[in-house]
Design a protein that fits this description.
Elements lengths: L1 H17 L3 H13 L3 H29 L1 H19 L5 H24 L1 H4 L5 H9 L1 H18 L5 H23 L21 H4 L23 H9 L2 H22 L1 H7 L5 H15 L2 H12 L1 H21 L3 H12 L4 H48 L3 H19 L9
Helix pairs in contact: 1-5, 1-7, 1-8, 1-9, 2-8, 2-9, 3-4, 3-5, 3-18, 4-5, 4-9, 5-18, 7-15, 7-18, 8-14, 11-18, 12-18, 12-19, 13-14, 14-17, 15-16, 15-18, 16-17, 16-18, 16-19, 18-19
């Protein structure tokens, strides 16, 4: 289980830490070399998220049908190729195309990865497992923050292309690791979930002959599960009202946080007078803070409940976005970065754990895929809206204040969630 968790975390590092958040550090040099406005720069992030949205639901459903081990390496390979080819782009159209391809691969693989700890960890450790996986993004922030500006400084105007090639090669290497080490569930190795103290149940439990309120962590050690038809999985999921409620809450996170993350470096340079290296160092600090965010808040959600943990996280993030907009001093920027970082990856971790709580380990990837469609739409809108506002107003202040307001709406939505315990 811990081996699967480690490889899953590395996979998230490649898909999100490099493929998505690595764009933030490349953006100023790439934008200058290709002559892109803020709106077009934001649209490149939107293109990436459009590909992600297109594949998020299908990736989760295919993982429920064929298994995560079959889906994740292919998604990593597609994303790696997309990153490498982004470095060959000669203008906005070419860059947008390869950002879409990167997003397709990310959506294909990331959704099953986020749900995988639900199969490998008992319910009482599920938030912890999900939190560790999403911290893979933190590795990306920690590495690209200090390294990319220095690579760019030593490689001339086209240095951003080399950075994308490095991203692509690293992602393809991790795709090979995923193919070798990932497994769909403990039964594939004759094991039980990590932390499961109950005696493994007979096969009839997994096949549905007991009450649907049975704890999803009580699974047979080796009994096979029948493949889940994709259409049947979707029907089971979309009929639950709480899925639509969770989806709208997740939408607000996507819009708010990616507007903030995409233009984090640009705002520091244009409004704070930071150099690229100084901005990269603060980005690294943010990354170090995010390392514990998914784990801490995943554990918090295990103890106080998913919805109250979500509501607290949204309020914390709303505060950080407002600080970043209004307190334009080194102390203010640093405080905002630290506050956001300490909660950054908590929402995906809690959402992934919630899906397993409601649907069990087998349908969790498909359920998380449905939620991720809402999330991806929010992510796709965030950078484009923020970039357009910045072009219209001459700064990112209004854009970050909008992100703060959207996060407050997310907190309200989370507070009114119903029970997230499995009900059949």
């Amino acid at each position: 289980g811990w081996v699967v968790l480690a490889v899953s975390t590395l996979s998230v590092f490649a898909l999100l830490g490099l493929g998505r958040f690595g764009y933030t550090m490349v953006l100023p040099a790439m934008q200058k070399d290709l002559g892109l406005s803020n709106a077009l720069a934001g649209s490149l992030a939107t293109a990436n998220l459009a590909g992600y949205a297109a594949m998020s639901v299908l990736g989760g459903a295919l993982a429920a049908r064929y298994g995560t081990r079959s889906v994740v390496p292919l998604g990593l390979a597609i994303a790696g190729v997309g990153m490498g080819l982004t470095g060959l782009a000669q203008g906005f159209a070419g860059a947008a195309l390869w950002r879409v391809v990167t997003g397709v691969g990310t959506g294909f693989a990331n959704v099953p990865l986020a749900a995988l700890p639900g199969a490998w960890f008992a319910r009482r450790l599920r938030g912890l497992g999900s939190g560790i996986v999403v911290s893979g993004s933190s590795i990306g922030l920690i590495l690209v923050g200090p390294l990319v500006p220095r690579l760019l400084a030593n490689s001339g105007p086209g240095g951003w292309r080399m950075v994308w090639w490095i991203y692509g090669v690293v992602t393809l290497a991790i795709a090979v690791l995923a193919h070798v080490f990932l497994r769909n569930r403990p039964a594939d190795k004759g094991l039980s979930p990590v932390g499961m103290t109950e005696k493994p149940a007979p096969a009839s439990v997994a096949m549905g002959s007991v009450s649907p309120t049975a704890d999803a962590t009580i699974e047979p050690a080796a009994a096979p599960l029948a493949p889940v038809a994709i259409s049947a999985a979707w029907k089971t999921i979309v009929r639950k009202p709480i899925v639509w409620h969770l989806g709208l809450v997740y939408f607000t996170f996507g819009l708010a946080y990616l507007a903030f993350m995409t233009f984090f470096t640009k705002h520091l340079i244009t409004s704070g007078g930071y150099t690229e290296q100084a901005a990269g160092d603060l980005y690294m600090l943010l990354g170090w803070c995010t390392v514990v965010s998914g784990v801490v808040w995943g554990v918090v959600s295990d103890h106080i409940g998913r919805k109250w943990a979500l509501a607290l996280v949204y309020l914390i993030q709303a505060t950080s976005f407002a600080l970043f907009a209004l307190w334009q001093t080194p102390a203010g920027f640093t405080t905002a970065a630290v506050v956001f970082g300490l909660s950054a990856w908590s929402v995906p971790a809690i959402m992934a754990a919630t899906c397993t709580d409601i649907f069990g380990a087998r349908l969790a990837p498909a359920a998380f895929g449905c939620l991720t469609l809402f999330f991806a739409v929010g992510q796709a809108a965030g950078p484009a809206v923020a970039g357009a506002i910045a072009d219209a107003t001459g700064s990112f202040v209004a854009a970050f204040l909008l992100a703060s307001g959207v996060a407050v709406l997310g907190a309200l939505g989370a507070a009114f969630l119903g029970s997230t315990h499995r009900s059949g």
